[in-house]
Design a protein that fits this description.
The complex is a heterodimer of chains A (131) and B (302). By secondary structure, chain A is an alpha+beta fold. In chain A, 18% of the residues lie in helices and 18% in strands. Chain A starts with a helix and ends in an 18-residue tail after the last strand. Classes of the chains: A alpha+beta (131), B mainly alpha (302).
């Protein structure tokens, strides 16, 4: 009883914590913003799209590469894609997504050409002379 | 009461033209107070009016036959009886009244609760029926206290006429009775901790689950009018009159708003009790206090 009265008095005294737009509260550490992809690192394996439960990430394969697409409007910012990326090409911004008015306004995609596999030259073992 | 006075009271003050904006203002005070307690900004002063107008433009679900008629009738009847109740409240006691108008006022204050219950049963919604049953249980348990308190106030003052009751001769029994009535107001207004019949998260607003559009707007208005009528009833029987009409109206309005703030603060500070706990609370207090009230009524009778 005493604690709830104290809490109410404190709430009234401190005033509203609602910030009028465009003010926004400070960002905490490890903030999960929009997903960023570094195309030069991405191999197009599609694991990010596979683990994405809200289908915000899609990877469409083409003959000469693939198209990586991301829709922040569908994203739940769970960070599973970032955790699952084997090449660590995905990361999350530490800023809030901007306010947008039209559906799909923040949608982004990268066209990445298929990387040529480096020629693997197997070393020829030297012959061992028999005694 | 003359017929012209009655009509003026019903339509002008404290009836329709005064009561409807005042009801919206009381709804605003309730919402704003709860918001401030929860560190929110809360709605602007005209928000209840905007809500009303917006709801008027919304479509209501269509019910056929007698069900459709009754679904529309309950909110309209609630608003009507509350306006009639407001017309009886003795803000300026010299302005008339008639013998026994206290009984009529109590009846009119009780009817919206019955219409609310009937609305739940008429809607045939499971949530509506649960809400109606809860409202019925709570209404029965809180009314013993409410009615014995009113009876004690009337018997100790030896009158059932509101204008005479509002005369400045408040006794200890009067204050005790008014305190008991204030204890019943959260149950009558379905406020926390006695909001089981209109529990939004559990039973989707109970009897009002199936309501939308203009009918829901009328229910919201009825809630504001209930605020006004119940707080006005308590304040009109307690505040000392100065003799200046404007000053009296100002004091009356200030005390009514103060009561809304206090009750809204209690609502913000408490969680919803379960129906059995709510009923047990009122029965426990009711039986003890009802005995005290009846004894006081006999002892302090004029």
């Amino acid at each position: 009883m005493k604690s709830i009265v104290q809490l109410l008095i404190q709430n009234v005294r401190e005033g509203s914590i609602t910030l009028p737009y465009p003010e926004r509260p400070a960002i905490q550490s490890h903030y999960r913003g929009m997903v960023q992809n570094a195309p030069e690192e991405c191999t197009g394996c599609g694991l990010c799209a596979y683990v994405c439960t809200s289908s915000a990430i899609t990877v469409q394969r083409a003959a000469d590469g693939f198209r990586w697409s991301y829709d922040p409007g569908q994203c739940t910012f769970c960070a599973r894609c970032v955790q699952r990326c084997p090449k660590k090409s995905l990361s999350m911004e530490d800023t809030r997504p901007p306010v947008y008015q039209h559906l799909g306004a923040l949608k982004q995609s990268h066209d990445v050409k298929k990387k040529k596999k480096p020629a693997v030259v197997a070393p020829i073992p030297q012959a061992v002379e028999a005694n | 009461m003359q017929i012209t006075t009655a009509i003026l009271r019903l339509l002008v003050f404290p009836g329709l033209f005064f009561a409807v904006p005042a009801a919206w203002f009381f709804l605003y005070v309730e919402r704003k107070t709860i918001a401030r307690m929860q560190q929110r900004i809360g709605p602007p002063v005209l928000q209840p009016f905007y809500d009303f107008v917006k709801l008027l433009g919304k479509e209501s679900p269509r019910y056929h036959g007698i069900q459709g008629l009754l679904m529309k009738a309950w909110p309209a009847l609630s608003v009507s009886v509350l306006l009639a109740a407001l017309a009886l409240i003795p803000v300026f006691p010299a302005k008339g009244g008639f013998s026994g108008d206290l009984i009529l006022l109590i009846t009119l204050l009780e009817l919206p609760s019955i219409f609310y219950m009937l609305a739940g049963f008429t809607s045939r919604s499971v949530y509506g029926k649960v809400g109606s049953m809860r409202e019925a249980s709570l209404s029965l348990s809180s009314n013993l206290l409410f009615l014995t308190a009113v009876m004690m106030i009337a018997v100790t003052a030896d009158t059932f006429q509101l204008s005479e009751l509002a005369a400045p001769s408040a006794s200890a029994a009067r204050w005790l009775g008014l305190a008991a009535i204030i204890l019943c107001i959260p149950a009558k207004l379905r406020l926390n901790p006695f909001s089981t019949s209109s529990a939004e998260q559990e039973i989707y607003s109970g009897p009002l689950t199936e309501y939308s559009g203009a009918d829901l707007a009328l229910w919201e208005l009825a809630h504001g009018l209930e605020w006004l009528a119940l707080s006005g009833f308590v304040v009109s029987l307690s505040f000392p009159r100065t003799g200046f009409r404007l000053a009296d109206a100002g004091i009356f309005a200030f005390l009514c708003i103060a009561m809304v703030v206090v009750l809204a603060t209690i609502a913000a500070a408490t969680a919803r009790l379960t129906i059995d706990r709510s009923v047990r609370f009122y029965w426990r207090w009711s039986v003890a206090l009802a005995v005290v009230f009846l004894m006081s009524a006999v002892l302090f009778r004029r």
